[in-house]
Amino acid sequence: MREFVESRFTAPRPDCPNPERWHAPDDQSTEVEVTALVAAMVTALQPDFVLETGTCRGSTTEAIGRALRANGQGKLVSLEVDPECVAFARRRCVGLPVCILATSSMDYIPSCPIDFAFFDSLASLRALEFVRYARWMHDRTVVGFHDTGPQHTVRERLKHLEEEGMLVSPLYLPTPRGVMFARVRT
Ligand SMILES: C[S@@+](CC[C@H](N)C(=O)[O-])C[C@H]1O[C@@H](n2cnc3c(N)ncnc32)[C@H](O)[C@@H]1O
Questions:
Q1: Which amino acid residue places its CA nearest to atom 18 of ligand 1?
Q2: pLDDT tens-place string over residues 22-45
Q3: Which of 11, 13, 35, 182 is the most exposed, having the fewest neighbouring CB atoms within 10 Å of its CB?
Q4: What separation in Å is there between the alpha carbon of 122 and the centre of ligand 1?
Q5: Ligand 1 in contact with 78 (CB < 6 A)?
């Protein structure tokens, strides 16, 4: 798939002065380099069950699926409300341990504990999604949130979860759109 320099989508700022060093296929899909980091988390953590909200065109979905296949165990459920995105992403994930559901992130009910989650649907939903799925998380669960850069509202929306101690040891990374990983207190 064609990729563009991220400076097309994200302006330079003090904590990320060179967005042109990253790449993305469009302004919705995660930066290619950040998708690779999410997949590397899956390789490092060896989860049995991964949840992604907001499949979009399946860039990160496919990368997580490939990491799980290389791990030799584990499956991903990715949730998306746009039927065209669902169809597109399903085509690119054929043969991977991935299930893309045409379901809202606020409706899905997991059937097993969540070991790793990547929250990337609407900015206004991500904190609510975390609260919704927290009951399926455990001491070893790691969560990731995309778009936590200062130009987005996600970090502000997560603040109360940090203050309440539900998100533990958050690591905010200075990538163009911003990404944060944290442990969880259930
Ligand atoms: C920022 S994009 C996701 C990018 C993708 N995760 C990636 O890494 O390339 C957000 C997606 O969330 C989807 N979305 C919006 N509301 C949703 C909901 N309630 N449940 C699931 N997906 C939703 C949108 O249709 C859109 O495709």
A1: 104
A2: 999 999 999 999 999 999 999 999
A3: 11
A4: 6
A5: no
